[in-house]
Inverse folding.
């Protein structure tokens, strides 16, 4: 056998699912979550820094996120970054804290978020199909006979189908969560 390993493909497909879940966690569902602001980059000290490296992010209540900014000089940069992140939320500065009230979602915004979730799902499927393609190429390079290659190809396809189904299930769950009023 050459360098074909089904477990390696499984690991890489798991990575695509993990990435999808991370993307989903940043989608707003009407409930406050630290994941909403964590990926936002802040202009700090001449470079871009993730939000969680300039302050402590807490969720004191279901519709409020607070960021306790460690350096008073960065409060304005934090507020500006949140405002420009395109999340449709307006931060309120309160001394060294930045409060981020989460407004209830409109029906229109829910539909937009469902589309974004679908786009993330499609990206995950593309990543899985890319792993499948590489797996199929590796199968063709194996030393096994035609029957062995056919069996390995079927295994790769089964694995791909299994992971595409996982993406569909995760997407359906996220869409239901988004549409829930």
């Amino acid at each position: 056998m050459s360098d074909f390993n089904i477990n390696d493909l499984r690991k890489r497909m798991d990575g695509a699912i993990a990435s999808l879940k991370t993307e989903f966690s940043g989608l707003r569902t009407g409930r406050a979550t630290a994941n909403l602001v964590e990926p936002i980059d802040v202009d700090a000290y001449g470079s871009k820094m993730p939000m969680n490296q300039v302050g402590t992010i807490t969720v004191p209540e279901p519709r409020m996120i607070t960021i306790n900014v460690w350096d008073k000089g960065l409060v304005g940069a934090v507020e500006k970054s949140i405002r420009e992140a395109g999340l449709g939320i307006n931060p309120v500065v309160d001394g060294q804290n930045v409060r981020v009230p989460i407004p209830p979602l409109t029906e229109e915004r829910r539909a937009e978020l469902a589309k974004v979730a679908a786009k993330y799902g499609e990206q995950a499927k593309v990543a899985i199909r890319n792993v499948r393609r590489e797996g199929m190429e590796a199968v063709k390079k194996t030393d096994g006979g035609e029957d062995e290659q056919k069996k390995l190809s079927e295994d790769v396809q089964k694995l791909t189908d299994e992971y595409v189904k996982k993406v569909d299930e995760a997407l359906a769950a996220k869409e239901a969560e988004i549409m829930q009023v």
In short: The mean pLDDT is 87. The longest helix spans residues 107-140. Strands lie at 41-44, 47-50, 55-61, 64-69, 92-94, 97-101.
